[in-house]
Write a structure and sequence with these properties.
By secondary structure, the chain is of the alpha/beta class. The chain contains 14 helices and 16 strands. It has two domains: about 110 residues, Urease, subunit C, domain 1, CATH 2.30.40; about 240 residues, TIM Barrel (Alpha-Beta Barrel), CATH 3.20.20.140. The structure holds zinc ion.
C-alpha cells in the first residue's frame, strides 16, 4: 500500500453499491467489513478478517460506512428567504412558480459577498450531513450578468454547475417571452456556457413550454452542455418527453406522470430524479417511486434545496421521506441518494465504493444504512471523507 494509506476496519455494514455505479438498483453491502483508502481513492474493500495492512488504521467499532451522498439537484445561489410564503402555504395557499420572482429580486440586489456567504454556508451544511458531491444551479439572476455571476460563484464550490437561465421569464420580459428565450439560448448562453457543465429548463405551466424548453436545450447541447429538465412537477406535462428527446441525463421531479412518461423513463438512458423535499414543503402528493422502480427506471433522490419550494439541504431527510412516504425500500433509497445521483450526473467515480472509486464516504453513528430512515431527523453522520481526506466529523 502507498504510504498515505488508511485502513478503516470494524465496519458493521459497508455499503459498496457493487462494482459500478451504473447498475440500476445495484445496492450491495458487506457486513464485518474493512476498506482501504489510498491516494484519495478506494484501494480495497472486503471482510475485515482479510484486510491488508496500511499506513494508519481506524476502528469503526461496528458503525456503518456508506458512499457520500450525491445531491444532483440544488439551487444554492440566492439571497433572501421565503419563510412567510411557506407559513402561508401551510395555512392553505397553493404553491405556484411565481414565487421564484421574489428570490430573483433579492438575488439581483445582493452583493457577491452576501451570495457567496450564503452559498458556502449551505454547502458546508450539506457536507456535514454527508453530501460529498452537489450540483448547483443558477436561475435567480435571469440577466446575462447575474446568471454569469451566479455560475461563477457555484463553480467555487462544485464542478457540477448548471445554467438555469430558463427558470422563469423575468418581469421585464413579461410582454416578450420569445425575446427572453432568444436571450437565454443566445447571448446569455454564450456568457454562461464556459462556466457550466449542464443546462436545465423549468418545463412547466407558468414557466416554459415544450417548444421553448426544446429550443433552449438544443442550444445548450450545441454549446457543449449536458441537458437536465425540471419536468412534471406541478401537473402533467411534456417535460419528461422533452428531456428524453434532448438526451437529458435526468428528468427531475417526475411527480405527475402518464404511463407513456413512465415507459420513457424506463427505456431512455435517463434518470428519474425525485425531490420529496418539494412535495413535503408544498403539500403536493409525493411522486410514485414504486411505479418507476417496478417499471425498471433508474431513480435518484436529491434535495432541490432552494428558499421557496424545498429549503432542506439534508439527504438523510429525503431518504426518510422516500422510505416512509414513497414506498422505496431502505436499500433503494440509499442507492438513489448515492449511485442514483452519480448516474444523474453521469459520473462513474462517485456514488459507490468499489476499488478505484473516489474515496468519498461517510460513517454513521449507527450499525446500518436503515437507521437513516429509522431515526429521521437525527444527525447520524459521524464523519465525512472527501477524496480520502477527513473533512467533517467526530471519530
Ligand atoms: Zn429545482
Amino acid at each position: 500500500m502507498a504510504p498515505d494509506s488508511t485502513l478503516i476496519t470494524g465496519i458493521g455494514e459497508l455499503v459498496t453499491n457493487g462494482p459500478g455505479a451504473a447498475d440500476r438498483g445495484g445496492f450491495a453491502a458487506i457486513t464485518d467489513a474493512a476498506l482501504v483508502i489510498s491516494g484519495g481513492k478506494v484501494a480495497w474493500t472486503g471482510p475485515a478478517a482479510r484486510a491488508p495492512a496500511a499506513d494508519s488504521a481506524l476502528d469503526a467499532a461496528g458503525r456503518a460506512v456508506l458512499p457520500g451522498f450525491v445531491d444532483s439537484h440544488a439551487h444554492l445561489v440566492f439571497a433572501g428567504e421565503r419563510s412567510a410564503e411557506f407559513a402561508a402555504r401551510m395555512a392553505g395557499r397553493p404553491y405556484t412558480a411565481g414565487g421564484i420572482l421574489a428570490t430573483v429580486r433579492a438575488t439581483r440586489s445582493a452583493s457577491d459577498g452576501a451570495l457567496r456567504a450564503n452559498l458556502r454556508r449551505l454547502a458546508a451544511e450539506m457536507l456535514a450531513a454527508g453530501t460529498t458531491t452537489l450540483e448547483c444551479k443558477s436561475g435567480y439572476g435571469l440577466t446575462v450578468a447575474d446568471e454569469q455571476r451566479g455560475l461563477a460563484l457555484a463553480a467555487e464550490v462544485t464542478p457540477e454547475v448548471t445554467y438555469l437561465g430558463a427558470h422563469v421569464v423575468p418581469p421585464e420580459f413579461a410582454g416578450d417571452r420569445a425575446g427572453y428565450v432568444d436571450l437565454v439560448r443566445g447571448p446569455m448562453l454564450a456568457a454562461c456556457a464556459p462556466l457550466s457543465r449542464w443546462i436545465d429548463v423549468f418545463c412547466e405551466r407558468g414557466a416554459f413550454s415544450a417548444d421553448e424548453a426544446a429550443a433552449v436545450l438544443a442550444a445548450g447541447r450545441a454549446a457543449g452542455l449536458g441537458a437536465r429538465v425540471h419536468a412534471n412537477q406541478l401537473g402533467p406535462g411534456p417535460g419528461v418527453r422533452v428531456a428524453a428527446e434532448a438526451g437529458a441525463a435526468s428528468a427531475d421531479h417526475c411527480t405527475y406522470l402518464t404511463d407513456a412518461d413512465v415507459d420513457t423513463l424506463a427505456s431512455a438512458p435517463m434518470v428519474a430524479t425525485l425531490l420529496p423535499g418539494a412535495e413535503f414543503a408544498t403539500r403536493h402528493p409525493y411522486p410514485d417511486a414504486r411505479r418507476l422502480l417496478d417499471a425498471g427506471a433508474a431513480v435518484a433522490l436529491a434535495t432541490d434545496c432552494n428558499p421557496g419550494s424545498s429549503f432542506t439541504s439534508s439527504m438523510p431527510f429525503c431518504i426518510a421521506l422516500a422510505v416512509r412516504d414513497m414506498r422505496m425500500t431502505t436499500q433503494e433509497a440509499v442507492w438513489a441518494a448515492t449511485a442514483g445521483g452519480a448516474r444523474a450526473l453521469r459520473r462513474t467515480d462517485i456514488g459507490h465504493l468499489g476499488a478505484g472509486a473516489r474515496a468519498d464516504l461517510i460513517m454513521l453513528d449507527a450499525p446500518s444504512h436503515t437507521y437513516l430512515a429509522y431515526r429521521p431527523g437525527v444527525p447520524l453522520v459521524a464523519a465525512v471523507w472527501q477524496g480520502g481526506r477527513l473533512v467533517s466529523g467526530r471519530l
